[in-house]
User: Which sequence fits this backbone?
């Protein structure tokens, strides 16, 4: 018994030792696996820097400015400064003791040309687009520059020729006389994912070949009219502008262009132009030196959730047409203020900014299809795209005044909404190019809270068009008073929806 007991102790001790050894082995394995997993997830940018670094350039711009007069005479600015501080002109100036009497002709001296001097304007970044010397950068980097100097990583410096710059997209292309240059690889923006690691190379504050890294924070970020930006947390500072945003495959996916900052320095939010948009612009710049964009001549706004639900659109989508430019492609196609454009050539318009991008990327002269939601149903309109042109000044309202039509008796239903209306005069209809509508003479209570004002013109109640006061009264009388009521109104040249909520 004693022997068996001893042997049992030895057996238990042996089993315990084996268990401890096994646990230690497992722990070691888990620890090593965790380290390996951590090593795999942390990116190494060294190979990317070696691969893309030779393609990133420093761009230095110079502008010519007139030198101050150096012929012993004091210029007008200094003379004015002297008068302000000392109460009299400087010695020798017109009006000063011993000087030329004020108003007397100046001595007939030969006019000397004012010399110009080169003055450094700024520093930015860029990258080599083609091996024969085309370089892409931001338009704001080279804007107003009289001279553009491009410095390669191997320290060779070239005077560049500006091929073209597009302010709307902030893309520019310059050309240097060199061959056999290391061009970048262009990535597929559709494969870029939020959370993906990306890297930037540029010259922040003039510090050439600076590498920073981060992740893609968002895609399709709306900060401009024509471009859905890539948002990252890559450190971008003044001087990084125009440099490439690079994915982990060594491909350029964007051009670093903007930062969000309250201090002027990096705050963790940076924006890059998607490379597919930039390439599209650069191709036009290289072929013609300018970018041609389409337009249809409508002013648009957002569709609110309340309006979308009340008029039967369902969800808040599309672009609300606030006004239509006279003789524009939109007017010729039959687009009306108050229409909601939901599709362009079959592509859905989820938010207002989608429309100018799709139209802008369409070649002028193309016939396209607009799908509009009007009075509770959708219809297709054919529009011929025109070329975008500088904005025209706003049309002034007519100075002619006509006698105000006599206000018609307002029903109890209209009064309960806080509205009093009258017939719209013929001159107003002609000026606003309207066939019908009623003018608001007073807006109080619920109507005032909805933003309606005296002088607004009601075009529709819900999805029912209004051509007279009687039609307006009928439409309100048929409306469900327990639900919000939506009015389509015209204010000057602009159309908008107003939602009057039921009183409680």
Assistant:
């Amino acid at each position: 018994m004693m022997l068996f007991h001893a042997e049992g102790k030895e057996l238990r001790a042996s089993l315990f030792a084996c268990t401890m050894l096994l646990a230690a082995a497992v722990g070691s394995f888990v620890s090593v696996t965790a380290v390996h997993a951590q090593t795999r997830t942390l990116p190494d940018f060294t190979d990317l820097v070696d691969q893309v670094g030779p393609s990133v350039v420093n761009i230095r711009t110079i502008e010519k400015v007139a030198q101050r007069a150096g012929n012993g005479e004091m210029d007008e600015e200094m003379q004015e400064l002297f008068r302000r501080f000392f109460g009299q002109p400087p010695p020798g100036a017109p009006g000063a003791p011993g000087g030329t009497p004020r108003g007397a002709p100046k001595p007939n001296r030969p006019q000397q040309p004012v010399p110009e001097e080169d003055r450094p304007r700024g520093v930015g970044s860029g990258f080599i687009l083609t091996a024969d010397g085309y370089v892409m950068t931001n338009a704001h980097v080279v804007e107003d520059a009289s001279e553009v100097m491009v410095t390669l990583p191997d320290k060779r410096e070239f005077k560049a020729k500006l091929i073209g710059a597009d302010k709307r997209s902030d893309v520019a292309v310059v050309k240097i006389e060199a061959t056999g240059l290391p061009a970048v690889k262009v990535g597929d923006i559709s494969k870029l994912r939020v959370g993906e690691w990306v890297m930037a190379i540029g010259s922040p504050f003039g510090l050439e070949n600076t590498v920073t890294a981060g992740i893609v924070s968002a895609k399709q970020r709306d900060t401009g009219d024509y471009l859905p930006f890539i948002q990252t947390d890559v450190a971008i500072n003044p001087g990084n502008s125009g440099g490439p945003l690079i994915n982990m495959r060594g491909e350029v996916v964007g051009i670093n262009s903007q930062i969000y900052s309250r201090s002027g320095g990096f705050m963790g939010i940076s924006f890059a132009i998607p490379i597919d948009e930039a390439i599209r612009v650069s191709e036009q710049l290289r072929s013609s030196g300018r970018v041609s964009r389409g337009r249809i001549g409508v002013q648009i706004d957002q569709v609110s959730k309340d309006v979308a639900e009340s008029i039967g659109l369902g969800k808040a989508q599309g672009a609300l047409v606030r006004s239509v430019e006279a003789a524009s492609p939109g007017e010729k196609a039959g687009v009306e203020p108050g229409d909601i454009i939901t599709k362009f050539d079959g592509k859905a318009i989820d938010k207002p900014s989608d429309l100018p991008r799709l139209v802008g990327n369409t070649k002028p002269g193309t016939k396209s299809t607009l799908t509009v939601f009007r009075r509770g149903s959708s219809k297709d309109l054919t529009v011929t795209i025109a070329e975008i042109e500088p904005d025209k000044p706003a049309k002034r309202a007519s100075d002619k005044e006509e006698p105000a039509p006599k206000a018609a008796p307002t029903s109890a239903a209209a009064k309960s909404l806080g509205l009093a209306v009258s017939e719209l005069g013929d001159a107003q209809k002609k000026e606003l190019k309207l066939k019908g509508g009623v003018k608001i003479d007073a807006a109080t209570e619920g109507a005032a809270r909805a933003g309606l004002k005296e002088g607004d013109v009601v075009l529709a109640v819900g999805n029912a068009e209004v051509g007279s006061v009687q039609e307006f009264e009928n439409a309100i009388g048929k409306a469900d008073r327990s639900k919000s009521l939506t009015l389509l109104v015209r204010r000057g040249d602009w159309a908008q929806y107003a939602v009057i909520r039921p009183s409680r």
Remarks:
- Residues 294-387 form a domain with the Pdz3 Domain fold (CATH 2.30.42.10).
- The radius of gyration is 35 Å.
- The longest strand covers residues 116-128.
- Residues 1-6, 32-39, 69-73, 390-402 have pLDDT under 50 and may be disordered.
